[in-house]
Design brief:
About 20% of the residues are buried. It is built from seven helices and no strands. Helix 3 packs antiparallel against helix 4. Bound molecules: heme C (2 copies).
């Protein structure tokens, strides 16, 4: 009994700390987001962008990085609601992935966030990046990416 309480409190204490420095992020848990947003790249965890970014992405799908990723309105709305509810700043949370991000900026890419640039600078050779195709292909370098693990590379 006592041990379970201790274990539960350890988990509660440990989770935000990991998510806060951007090292472990909850993978996508919404089935529709997982299926619709993984056709061209991995389905990115909601916790990697602030709500305003997800809103902008989800209202410009017809011109999504040069592709038409538009959806029927019911699916679009469900995915937007899920991403916004689990965003890096959901419920007033200040995840570490928002560090040094100007409140006036609405980034469309995880890979243009200041933490991302700092974390990756000098870590990847031009050859390796070229092989991966682009920074957007997280799962090429981080094999556990779809499960929320980014520590391995
Ligand atoms: C028809 C193909 C397609 C679909 C479907 C699609 N995307 Fe994309 N997405 C792209 C392309 C192309 C890029 C740019 C990739 C690159 O830069 O290499 C991109 C990039 C992104 C990025 C930026 C990644 C980064 O940090 O560089 C985000 C965020 C994103 N998509 C979210 C979504 C979401 C959310 C959905 C589901 C609603 C979705 N995408 C569905 C094609 C698609
Ligand atoms: C070309 C390979 C490559 C791509 C693509 C890439 N990364 Fe990384 N990433 C690395 C390397 C190398 C490191 C530094 C070593 C490490 O900590 O794993 C790193 C570090 C990280 C870290 C910090 C991990 C830690 O424990 O310090 C996170 C989080 C991360 N990447 C997320 C992402 C996300 C999200 C994407 C896609 C939008 C992405 N990466 C795309 C290679 C890549």
């Amino acid at each position: 009994m006592k041990r379970n309480i201790l274990l539960a409190s350890l988990i509660i204490v440990a989770m935000p700390a990991l998510a806060d420095d951007g090292r472990m992020i909850r993978p996508v848990t919404n089935a529709l987001t997982q299926s619709e947003c993984s056709a061209c790249h991995m389905a990115y965890p909601a916790g990697f962008l602030p709500a305003r970014s997800w809103k902008k992405i989800m209202t410009t799908l017809e011109d999504h990085f040069g592709e038409d990723a538009s959806l029927d309105e019911a699916s679009r709305a469900e995915i937007e609601a899920y991403l916004v509810a689990n965003a890096a700043d959901a419920g007033g949370r200040r995840s570490g992935v928002l560090r040094r991000l100007d409140a006036a900026d609405t980034p469309m890419r995880i890979s243009e966030l200041p933490w991302f640039r700092r974390e990756h600078s000098g870590e990847v050779s031009p050859r390796r990046l070229k092989k991966a195709g682009s920074w957007a292909n997280c799962n090429v370098c981080h094999r556990g990416a779809e499960k929320g693990y980014f520590e391995d590379d």
